[in-house]
Specification:
Elements (H helix, E strand, L loop, with lengths): L1 H18 L5 H10 L2 H4 L2 H17 L1 E4 L7 H13 L14 E5 L3 E9 L2 E9 L1 E3 L5 E4 H9 L7 H11 L16 H22 L13 H14 L1 H7 L1 H11 L7
Parallel strand pairs: 1-2, 2-6
Antiparallel strand pairs: 3-4, 5-6
Helix pairs in contact: 2-5, 4-5, 5-6, 7-9, 10-11
Length: about 260
């Protein structure tokens, strides 16, 4: 127990130092180049993000796949977007996540499907994925494309790291760890209603502020809603003000003000 406490104390001390440190000019340049949303942040949030990125880079391991060589640009670009979700909040820096695997482009992964009780193994093309108690897998070309188009409501890093937040309590159910027990009831009411509305729109072929992929299940709805919250706040607030307010309360941020 003494060794565990000593290790935690050492880690927390190192985190405090990293949080107070600025990013060097080269790393800030990568963020400005690949994350236009960064330019809209107030100065205090930029400074906070820089510190969060320092910790993320220190604690997470990046692995290149499919022949991709991991560079500082790749690491910083991913870290900055992942840490957007941690701004203004008490966090343990995605504690279950140790490694991020990055492919150069869209990749093919094995998948299992239940067909009337028969489990079929197949393959699916993916942009990214988040494993509970495991890694995040991303495609570099989709990372840069999604981040640079700041108004399309699609960002694979925000999406997959929203899954990481959702999975911190052990369940991928669209309900991350909230501030209080009573918060879960109102969260379920608002997000459940919006989820059903998106499902109806998807079934009827109607347009929506949210990506229709969010109609897959509650976990995907939370991830898709997170993307829209950061990239399409005006549209979300106009069409789904209660959803916007719930996400604003959870993330402790108001992208409308940026």
């Amino acid at each position: 127990m003494g060794t565990f406490i000593a290790k935690r104390f050492k880690r927390n001390r190192k985190r405090r130092l990293l949080l107070q440190s600025d990013l060097d000019a080269a790393k800030q340049g990568f963020i400005k180049k690949n994350l236009p949303l960064y330019q809209h942040l107030p100065a205090d949030l930029k400074q906070q993000l820089n510190g969060l990125v320092n910790v993320f880079l220190d604690e997470k391991h990046f692995v290149g796949c499919g022949g991709l060589e991991i560079t500082d640009e790749i690491k910083v670009t991913i870290a900055a977007q992942a840490c957007m979700l941690l701004l203004n909040r008490k966090t343990n820096f995605y504690p279950k996540l140790k490694a991020i695997y990055v492919y150069p482009h869209t990749y093919v992964a094995k998948s299992l499907q239940n067909d009337g009780g028969l489990i079929l193994e197949g393959k699916s093309v993916r942009l990214g994925e988040s494993w509970q108690n495991g890694p995040v897998v991303l495609a570099w070309d989709n990372i840069t494309g999604g981040a640079r188009n700041v108004e399309d409501g699609r960002n694979v890093v925000l999406h997959e790291f929203a899954h990481q937040l959702d999975q911190e309590d052990g369940d991928a159910d669209g309900a991350p760890i909230l501030d209080c027990r009573g918060c879960y009831r109102s969260w379920a009411a608002v997000l459940g209603e919006e989820y059903e509305r998106l499902r109806q729109k998807e079934h009827g072929g109607q347009r929506s502020v949210l990506n229709k992929y969010g109609a897959t299940n509650p976990a995907e709805f939370f991830a898709v809603a997170t993307e829209a919250f950061f990239e399409k706040p005006k549209q979300m607030y106009k069409h789904s003000p209660e959803l916007y307010e719930k996400l604003k309360s959870y993330y402790k941020l108001d992208p409308l003000s940026w």
